[in-house]
Amino acid sequence: MSIDLANQIVTGILTGLVYSLMALGLSVIFGVVRVVNFAHGEMTALAMYAAWALATWLDLDPLLGMPLIALVMFGCGYLLQRGLIDSFIAKPEHMQFILLVSLAIIMVNGSLLAFGPDAHGVQVSYGFDTYEMGPLLVDKVRLLAAAASLAFSLALMVFFRRSKTGKAIRACADNLVGARVIGLDVRRLYAVTFGIGTACVGAAGALLSMLIDVMPPTGPELTLLAFIIVIVGGLGSMTGALLGGVLIGVSEVLAGYFLMPSMKSMFSFAILIVVLVARPQGLLGGRK
Amino acid sequence: MLRIEGLDLFYGDAQALSGVSLTVPQGGITAIIGANGAGKTSLIRAIAGMERPRRGTIVFDGRDITGWDSHRICDLGLGQVAEGRQIFPSMTVADNLELGAMIPRGRAAAAATLNRVWEIFPRLLERRGQTAGTLSGGEQQMLAIGRCLMGQPRLIMFDEPSLGLSPAMVQEVFAVIRRLHDEGLTIVLVEQNVALSLGMADHACVLENGRVAMEGGGGELLGDDRVREAYLGL
Question: Is residue B95 within 8 angstroms of chain A, CB to CB?
Answer without folding.
Answer: yes
